[in-house]
Write a structure and sequence with these properties.
Layout: E1 18-20, E2 25-27, H1 29-46, E3 55-59, H2 64-77, E4 84-91, H3 98-112, E5 116-120, H4 121-125, H5 129-135, H6 140-158, E6 163-165, H7 170-183, H8 186-189, E7 206-208, H9 216-225, H10 242-257, H11 261-277, E8 286-287, E9 294-295, H12 301-308
Parallel strand pairs: 3-4, 3-6, 4-5, 6-7
Antiparallel strand pairs: 1-2, 8-9
Helix pairs in contact: 1-9, 2-9, 7-10, 7-11
The structure holds iron/sulfur cluster and zinc ion (2 copies).
One zinc ion binds near residues 290, 291, 300, 302 and 303.
Length: about 300
């Protein structure tokens, strides 16, 4: 239920459709939309996510967050001749789940008139996630993520992208921060942020996360208000990562009793990251002897995974 019904917007006389508890303001549809756009523009400006001359590959799965990134970047930059946008969609091969998203992605890109490239696990690496779930008892989410990041980087680079925009929201980031701390994975922790600090290498395309300051529930509401089509099914394999589910619930419970706690967690992490970053030395990056993609090992993790299956 949307809190704030029957109340008036704090910025005009219209009916409120949302109460932002951590700010204490009521929002009508128009002012809610404006507030999200303003925050995304501020994130882009403050962190220099997009600059003149950039060619941005938008990673569009067809879910709500990546559809919002596509909608917003298109709205902000479509008339800017110095910024080029296009879409990359990765089809992992998860029947009954991805098909809905892929159709919505195709239709939405057509409607916006934006160039779209689709790459499938099946064609590019010869295996689908449905195959992986049959071959592996657990860990297929890790393998799915690994293959997706690999293909996204490779294809974006081949298509001349200077940056890849993803749909990570505030909840995703907060969950990752806590999970990385709980697992003692500080290397991953220092790689987070609106411009994640991945290892510098000419074959790695810089990632950017324009939605990083938008909570998940607000991302969903934004998509609904603005009639942005998105696939709403949950991947049937998401149970493969129970720690994320528990961390999500923990943070949601905390947010209910202490509104704004996700923001403060994220802001704190962003302040800590620069001071611990120097403690991690960047390993030497070579080229995988098998596929030629950048890797700190002789054979990259993707080639190793495919070989062992
Ligand atoms: S839940 Fe797991 S299998 Fe499903 S898309 Fe996400 S990473 Fe891939
Ligand atoms: Zn209003
Ligand atoms: Zn390789």
């Amino acid at each position: 239920m949307v809190i704030g019904e029957r109340m008036k917007c704090s910025f005009c006389n219209k009916k409120s459709i949302y109460f932002r508890k951590y700010e204490g303001h009521h929002y009508c549809e128009k002012h809610f939309t404006k507030s999200i756009e303003k925050r995304v523009k501020k994130t882009i400006r403050k962190n220099k996510l997009i600059e003149n001359g950039d060619k941005i590959a938008i990673a569009h799965s067809g879910g709500k967050d990546s559809s919002n990134v596509l909608f917003l970047l298109n709205k902000i930059f479509k008339n800017n001749p110095n910024i080029n946008l296009f879409v990359i969609t990765i089809n992992e091969g998860i029947k009954k789940y991805r098909d809905e998203c892929l159709k919505k992605s195709e239709n939405f890109c057509k409607k916006l008139g934006i160039e779209r490239h689709v790459f499938s696990f099946k064609k590019e690496v010869g295996i689908t996630v449905d195959d992986l779930t049959k071959k592996m008892k657990t860990g297929y989410c890790g393998s799915c993520g690994l293959l997706r990041r690999y293909l996204l980087n490779k294809k974006a680079r081949e298509l001349g992208a200077t940056k890849v925009a993803t749909g990570h929201n505030l909840d995703d980031e907060c969950q990752s921060i806590l999970m990385n701390i709980l697992k003692g994975d500080l290397l991953r922790l220092v790689r987070m942020g609106p411009v994640p600090r991945v290892v510098k290498h000419k074959k790695f395309v810089q990632r950017i996360k324009p939605l990083i300051f938008i909570p998940e529930n607000e991302s969903e509401l934004f998509a609904k208000i603005n009639k942005i089509p998105f696939g709403s099914k949950r991947c049937p394999n998401s149970i493969d990562n129970p720690l994320r589910g528990k961390t999500r619930k923990f943070l949601d419970d905390l947010e209910k009793s202490s509104p704004g706690i996700k923001y403060s967690l994220y802001e704190s992490a962003l302040k800590i990251v620069p001071s611990v970053k120097g403690k991690f030395k960047q390993g030497k990056i070579n080229y995988c002897k098998n596929c030629g993609e950048p890797s700190s090992r002789e054979i990259c993790k993707v080639c190793e995974l495919l070989k062992n299956l």
